[in-house]
Design a protein that fits this description.
Blueprint lengths: L9 H6 L3 H11 L8 E4 L6 H7 L5 H9 L3 E11 L2 E10 L7 E8 L5 H9 L4 H7 L4 E11 L17 E10 L2 E10 L2
Length: 190
């Protein structure tokens, strides 16, 4: 597979590493050597249905629950912890749907939250957004990039075999109490 990204602009350099590299580093945290087939796209290049789910500064759990009219459930399929750095690869599912409505990678600096919040996150049975909201943690979600994944990408395969269409996602950062605490890759179902 190949990774495509446009030439970095001066604003990209000011923000940090290229989004495709961030995705590779997140996968590497879990020991994955795969190179995703990902392209950074502008919001206007994202189909309207995806754009409504991705181009916002809110929690994906809230947006997905509103979109599907039902609660989402977390299904972790890979978890890793190195000290205070905790990562999990998850699917979010809605009752009645055979495939996930979102697949995601979360890397969280647990040292930035209280022990009660940390314990709830480590149980991996509640969407992160719900936990942060319930504990009234001051949070800000920043979309760092919108992404397009080719239909054949292994990350898109989480939604089922042979979908034959690309999927869209986002890289985002969640600040907790004004400190960057969570890096997210969130890909919604085609």
């Amino acid at each position: 597979m190949r990774t495509r990204s446009p030439a970095p602009s001066s604003s990209d350099a000011a923000r940090g590493i290229a989004p495709a590299k961030v995705v590779r580093l997140m996968l590497a945290f879990f020991g994955d050597a795969e190179i995703p087939d990902v392209e950074v796209v502008d919001a206007d290049a994202v189909p309207a249905a995806y754009r409504a789910l991705l181009a916002h500064s809110g929690h994906m759990t809230e947006r997905l629950e509103k979109h599907y009219g039902a609660a989402v459930a977390v299904r972790p399929h890979s978890v890793r912890r190195e000290g205070d750095i905790y990562g999990r690869r998850i699917d979010l599912r809605v009752d009645g749907r055979a495939s996930p409505v979102m697949t995601a990678i979360m890397i969280f600096n647990l040292g930035l939250v209280a022990a009660t919040v940390r314990e709830e996150i480590l149980r991996a049975d509640t969407p992160l957004g719900h936990i942060l909201i319930r504990h009234r943690i001051l949070r800000r979600v920043t979309v760092d990039a919108l992404l397009r994944f080719d239909a054949g990408d292994p990350l898109v395969a989480r939604f089922g075999p042979d979908l034959g269409q690309p999927a869209y996602g986002r890289l985002a950062t969640i600040d907790c109490d004004r400190r960057p605490a969570v890096d997210l890759l969130e890909i919604v179902s085609p």
